[in-house]
Amino acid sequence: MDGSGPMSDIVISSRIRLARNVAGFLFFPHADKEQQRELLDFIRGKVMETELKNDLWYVNMEETAPLERLVLVERHLISQRLVDREGPCGVALSHDESLSVMINEEDHIRMQVLASGLQLEETYDHSNRIDNLLEKKMDYSFSPKYGYLTACPTNVGTGLRVSVMLHLPALKIIGQIEKVFRAAKEMHLAVRGLYGEGTEPIGDFYQLSNQTTLGKTETQIIEELTSQAIGPIVEYERRARDKLLKDRAIALEDKIFRAIGVLANARMISSEEAIYLLSFVRLGIHLERVTDIDLKTVNELFMLTQPGHLQNLYKRDLAENERDEVRAEFIRNKLL
Question: Which of 58, 241, 319, 325 is disulfide-compatible with 170, CB 3.0–4.6 A?
């Protein structure tokens, strides 16, 4: 979210996720609680034996409060599936939050690496190094014919899920967003919302990722996603922004400054509305229409006004209407 990476005006982040299972242990949901705990202790021990151990902290999900779990989901460090898991599970996190290794999610191991902007190759290199470190400590379930074996057939092969978070407000405004994503789906790419699988797009943020991993190498998957989808979509969004500036500049500025007006004066605001309005402010910053609000402030507001972060900030559980009130107050104080 720091906006420092390549193409970060449109590409918010890059993520590489690898699914792995340990040979000799049952896949979910066939493993009982005792076997799951044995697996958790085994993997956690092996992870903490690697050279990464001094850069990692471990979270036992069974002992983690619901609010703390929600914060981890909002920071994209764990999945909702891990939150919903009943039984032994946990996650090892790097101190800079670029790496998380989920244990006992859908697969025995789900490791992910995050980076700002479009950095898929660099992110994959990082995840590959970590994968190699772990593979030295344990045997993965692997088929010479099919590749890495996973709980879901769509992950069999490389076990690789490549995804990018895109901010595409201009394409939405000019009515071209559905056409773009119909083309993406024809290329067998998944289009999801801010929090991945099962979520709807809000604030013009979209996650785009590969759906299958079998029959292709990791390099092929990354190159195809970048050249056939990400590159063209980024170019379409930039053209759409140029078109808005040329043909509908006043209307665009009106949307941007109305958004700022509401954010700076509202007494109650929902999380969804805040993200929607901040999306316009972010667009205004990149189009140099907004000069008195910096990108760092907007990015902080995207994160800190989400329900879990907001309650964590105020150190107490808040009812929905209370959250809407303190969210509005928090935003006003940041903008004024």
Answer: 241
Q: d(Cα 251, Cα 23) in Å, to the nearest integer?
A: 59
Between CA 165 and CA 181 the distance in angstroms is: 14
**Per the confidence metrics, is the pTM higher than 0.85?**
yes
Spatial distance between the Cα atoms of 168 and 79, rounded to a whole number of angstroms: 24
The pLDDT tens digits for 168-179 are 999 999 999 988
- The β-bridge partners of 162 are 16
CATH of 11-238 given 1.10.150.670, 3.40.50.1370, 1.10.510.10, 3.30.590.10: 3.30.590.10
**Secondary structure string (H, E, C) spanning 118-142:** CCHHHHHHHHHHHHHHHHCCCCECE
Distances (CA, A) of 304 to 128, 298, 301, 314: 31, 10, 5, 11
Rounded Cα–Cα distance for residues 4 and 13 (Å): 10
The secondary structure of 160-223 as a DSSP string is EEEEEEEE-HHHHHTT-HHHHHHHHHHTTEEEEBTTBTT----TTEEEEEES--TTS-HHHHHH
